[in-house]
Amino acid sequence: MDLKHFxxxxxxVKKVLLQWLAPFGPWGVHPMFTHEVxxxxxxxxxxxxxxxxxxxxxxxxxxxxxxxxxxxxDCRSVFLxxxxxxxLHRRERRRASEFIFEDEVRxxxxxRASGLVMVFDQSLPRGGEREQAQAKLDHxxxxxxxxxxxxxxxxFLVLSASRQLVDEASNxxxxxxxxxxxxxxxxxxxVDRRTLSxxxxxxxxxxxxxxxxxxxxxxx
Length: 220
What we know:
Blueprint: H1 9-20, E1 27-30, H2 39-49, H3 65-69, E2 77-80, E3 85-87, E4 99-101, H4 102-110, E5 117-121, H5 129-142, E6 146-150, E7 155-160, H6 163-177, E8 184-186, H7 193-196
Parallel strand pairs: 1-2, 2-5, 3-4
Antiparallel strand pairs: 5-7, 6-7, 6-8
């Protein structure tokens, strides 16, 4: 989040989505600030969104990403606001601070079995938002993470370890908002036959967390 954009139309969508999803809270916000902010600035942003800001730290290329995201703590549901969005694979280290990566999102999801993880994703190409959001949701589904996306010029992924919780959340949003159903797309449930047969499930190539600190990951 870059506060020079504070109050734009995307921020209005963030605020409204958090209001609609309030029953699935309490919510915390990790803004993933792109620059240093004062306590007063963080407080104002928190008051606007109606949820506490969990960290003011700036994510740099040499940051320990695991420690950085640990600020999410045990908050039931969290909203993440990376500068650009969600990236499924680690590449272009020089741009790493613009993104949250798939393995990091999965870790946050699995740490809150009864909660949601919502991410603002601006990385989707204009005109191809629905297809790309669907592709990301289906990728997460193959990793046993359920989700839905609010699709517009401002796209948001809403994810959980619980398919039932995701369905309840998406149905609630549609009910209280009166949005057309076309604005919401869901992941396709994935059944891994190897899991059912007792074999170890392996995540898609390139999506598994690697050992070591968050600043020691492999890059393509």
